[in-house]
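To whoever is on call:

I kicked off a structure prediction for a single chain this morning and the downstream step that reads the tokens threw a length-mismatch warning. I double-checked the sequence; it's 253 residues and nothing unusual in it as far as I can see. Pasting both halves so you can look.
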Amino acid sequence: MSTTVSSISAARSCLISSKRQWTPFQRRFVFPSVGERLRHSNTRPGATSDTATPVEETATMAKEDVVGAVVTPSIVNKPWLRTTAVLGTLLLASYYFQKPLPGQFVKLAHLFGFASWFGTSMWVLLLSPKIMFTNLGRQTFGKLQAKLFPQYFGFSALTLVVLLGTKPFSGWPYTLSLALLCTVFNWLVLEPIISKSAAERYALENAEKRDEDKIKALMKTTSKYHGMSSSVALVTVCCAVAHGYLLSTTLSF
């Protein structure tokens, strides 16, 4: 057994050392991401295919529960230092532009609120899912999304309340109101249903005796409400674009 493990380790070291000389296709074939291996495999997450290469088997056996810090914390990451830097920047900007901070507070709150809402939406809804789905296993990806989206919806709701309280125009803010309604509906109604049905499906998939009919039914439920959630989120993004366009009309260059 030890000889086999040593052979696998030696083969992997040899492959890694020569990886730089390979073509992109060779790298993708021999060193696939976790997500790629799981999507193209008929085995359950965590299982090893009968036809897996030694490199893939070694990667599958890699420990993911190692305890310890990712990096040694830097003083730059201290909350007090970041807060001091931001507040100092605001004070210096108010002095340089001769605009007292209290008089600019409402405008700043609206501007930063919109920037935070729009930027977070672009990252959470459009960019990060593709990256995570490509590099994580399906169940790990789903479990991470179940933790991420409640936080995202809650943060979005908070920024929308700030935007509604600091609107720089008269009249009813229809786009912001609709966006807040959609966000709260996603947060409190749709997301819990999706996370619950997905968790139940993962438990059945990992059970020794799989109930395929129940798994298919849960997948259908998850897909149904996920489609509804995506539609509601798209409405929210459209509201953000419309409000951004409105803000652009107040700018002058």
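Update from on-call: the warning came from a stale cache, not from the record. Cleared it. Sanity check on the structure: Confidence is low (pLDDT under 50) at residues 15-61.
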